Amino acid sequence: MIAARHLTTLRKVVEALAPPETRVDRVLGQMATTIDGSSPGRRAEALQLLDLLALPMRLGVGTRRKILLAMADSPVAKLRTGFALLKRLTMSYAFSESDADGTGNPFWAALGYPGPRGDRPEATSFPQLPLSYGTDGGRVSADVVVVGSGAGGGIAAGGFARAGKRVIVIEAGKAFAPGQVQQLEQNMSEMYLDRGVAATDDLGVAILAGSALGGGTKINWCTSFRLEDDVAAEWEAESGIHGLGRELAPHYAAIERELEIAPSREQAVKDQVILDGAKALGVHAAAMPRNAQNCSGGCGYCGFGCAYDKKRSTDREYLPDVVANGGAIYVQAKALRVVTVGSRASGVEVEQRLPSGEIVRFTVDAKEFVVSSAGTLRTPGLLARSGVRNPVLGKRLFLHPVQSVVAFFDHPIEAWNGPMQSAYSNAWSRRTGNYGAKIETAPMHPGLMFVAIPYAGPESITEMLPKAKYATTLISLTRDRDPGSIDLDDEAQIHYRLSAFDEANLFEGLAGCFDIAFAAGANEVWTMHNRQIRISKDDWNAGRRAMLAEQLRAIGTDSNRGITFSAHQMGTAPMGSDPRTSVVDAAGRVWGYDNLLVCDGSVFPQASAVNPMLTIMAMARRIVAQHVPLVVEEAKPIEAPEAVPAGAPLAAQHLETLAAPQAYPTA
Prior knowledge:
Elements: H1 4-17, H2 24-36, H3 40-53, H4 61-72, H5 77-96, H6 108-111, E1 139-147, H7 151-162, E2 167-170, H8 188-191, E3 205-207, H9 216-219, H10 229-239, H11 244-259, E4 262-263, H12 269-281, E5 286-287, E6 289-290, H13 314-317, H14 319-324, E7 328-330, E8 333-341, E9 344-353, E10 359-372, H15 379-385, E11 397-398, E12 402-408, E13 423-424, E14 437-442, H16 446-452, H17 458-467, E15 471-478, E16 485-486, E17 494-495, H18 500-519, E18 524-527, E19 534-536, H19 542-555, E20 564-566, E21 570-571, E22 596-598, H20 613-625, H21 649-658
Parallel strand pairs: 1-2, 1-10, 2-7, 3-20, 10-22
Antiparallel strand pairs: 4-6, 5-13, 8-9, 9-10, 11-21, 12-15, 12-18, 14-15, 16-17, 18-19
C-alpha cells in the first residue's frame, strides 16, 4: 500500500490543482489505487516523484500551484512527465468520480453533463455468458486455447468453435454483461488497460486500450473501416505476402454481414460539424461506418460498454459460439506463458483471480492450437516469456498518434451525446503518398475532457465549465510511418517518439481541424498544448493559418508539451514472408512453431491508416481459415464512400484557396 507520507503529499497536490469543490478523499483514493496497481517500475517512479515534492508541497496552496505549473512547461522532460502524471490523475478522477447511482459529482451541473441515462435496461434483461474458474494446480483441456477475447481473439475463438473445436478463452480483464454497464466514466479503471492510464515510457502518448471480456470491441467507438486498397498494396510490398488485400475481401464481407456494419444512420451534433465544415470547404466528408445501428439514439456512452446490447462486440457475437460448442471462458486470468515442446505449443499456464479474491494457477492443455490474441501491447511479452526469440518481436509499434482541438459554437453541442463517432473526413489523409491524417471527432465526457484541456490554474477550469456544453473536439488521427517499440519484460515499457515526417502530417491534420471548425461556424478554436494556441473566427485567414503552422512547428511534439493520444496499437509481431523481418508467417504461425498462432493487431506490417478493428477481425478470420474450414462469402463492398485518391486533390484545392489572401477577410 502507498505510504502515509506519500498520501499526504498527494493530497497537497490534489488540493493545489483541483477546484475547491473537489471531493478530495474520493479522488485521493482512486489515485492511490492506480499508483499501487501500476507495474513495479511505474509505481517506483511515482513514489520517487512524491518524495521529490514532499517539502515543496508543505508550502501554501498558491506556492504549491506555481511549483507544479513550472513543472508543466519545464525544459526538463522528467519534470514535465511528473506534472503530466499528477495533472491527468487529478483531473480524470475529480471530474469523473460519482456516487454509485451516477450522482454527486460537484462539477457536472455546471458542465450541463447529465451522467448516466435513465433508460438503461435492468440487469436481468440480457443473458450472461457462463464463466469458468480454475483450481490451483489443476489442468483442463481443449482443442484450441485462445489468449485474449478482443477483435482478434473473439474472431479466432468463434471461428474455431464454429469449425467444431472445443475452445478455451483466457481473458485478463473482467466480464461486463450489458445489464452491468453503468455508463460511468470512472469505470474505465475496470475496463481499460492499466486502469485507463496506460502510456508511453515518458507519458508522452496516453494510450487507450481495452482490458475486459470483448477487449477493445467492448469499449471502442464502433468505427468499422476496411483497409483501403492502396494501403493494402503497401502492406503486400512490406510483408512480401502478395494478394493479401484480395484475400481479406471475403473475410471483411462475412464480418460486415454478421455485425451489420453500415454508415451511421444518425449524426451527433458534434459530428455534424465535420459534415457541415467539409461541405462549406468543398472537401471530402462522409458518414462513419459503424457496428452499432439503431442504438438508442446513439447514446454517447459506448466507451464504457454498451448498456443496450446494440454494439456488436465479440463477447456478444462470437464468444457465445465457444460456450455453445462445449468450450469455456476464464476471466481475470493472465496467461503466464505458452508451454512448448520442441516446435509445438502444448498449452498455456494461467493465473486467475477468483471472485473470492483467491489467486490460483492452472494449466490449459491444447491438443491442436494455441493462439495469442493478447493484443499489440501484450502479445510480445507473452511470446518472449514462452521462449520465442525473434529480433523483430516488440519492434515496429505503430500508434496512430492523435492530437486534438476544441472548437466553440454559439449553439449547444453537448459532445457527450450521440454516436461516439458518426462522420469523418479524408481530405488531409494523403499529404505524402498514403500518409496523412484523418479528421474525426471524440466524445467529451468530463474526466477525459479535463485531462486534455491545458491547465493554467483554477481559472482554466472556471473558464471551461460553462463553455463545455458549446464545444466539440476534432482530432487529427495520423497514420504513422516511423514506429516505436515495446519492451519484452513484465514492465512492458513503450518507447515512441514522433518522427519529423509523422509530426508534419499530424500538424497538417490539426490545421485541417481548424479549417473544418471555422467553416462550420465555430467562434473560437483552441489547441491542447501547454502554451495553448487560441484563434477566433475573425482572425482566421490564410496568413493566420500559415502562422499556426509555424507555431505548431515551434512547439513540436516533445513529450508532454501538450497531450497526444493513441487508441490504435498495431505491429510488434508483424506478419511476413521472411523470418528475418517478421514474427509470424502468412498463415499467422510464429516462425519456428507448428501450431502457435497470433491473431491480433500485432501482426499488422504497417499502420492501417484507418481505425483498425475491422481489419484485425478480417486478418484473424483469414488466419483461422488457413487452419480449419470456414464458410467464406463472396466479396461485397461495404456501403461507404470511396477512398480519397492518392494526393487528396480536394484537400489540395482547399489549400490553394487558403494560400490566396483575397479568399478571406483581412484581420
